[in-house]
Amino acid sequence: MSDRPGRVITHENLLEHVWGPAHRQDLDYLRVAVRALRKKVEADPASCRLIINKPGVGYRIAIEARARALRSSPILST
């Protein structure tokens, strides 16, 4: 999908790669999945500092926030 960190991945691209080409327009699937993922990885899911939405386009991972999260992870710091 993307080999450049921090790049925005389109909704359609995410949907096609995760659920298949027949679901390229099913944004509800993607929104539910991103909401669940944010609950697992964001310190405060309402603030959306790690998974950033680009309205009408797609999502990107905030590289700086990801690095901080990895450093502070109790699992990865051992």
From TrEMBL:
Keyword annotations: DNA-binding
OmpR/PhoB-type domain sequence ranges: 1-63
Q: Name one Pfam family in it.
A: Trans_reg_C
InterPro entries annotated for this entry? OmpR/PhoB-type_DNA-bd, Sig_transdc_resp-reg_C-effctor, WH-like_DNA-bd_sf
Q: What protein is this chain from?
A: OmpR/PhoB-type domain-containing protein
Organism placement in taxonomy? Bacteria, Pseudomonadati, Pseudomonadota, Alphaproteobacteria, Sphingomonadales
Q: Looking at the keywords, is Membrane present?
A: no
Q: Which residues bind DNA?
A: 1-63
Note whether DNA-binding occurs among the keywords: yes
Top-level division of the source organism's lineage: Bacteria
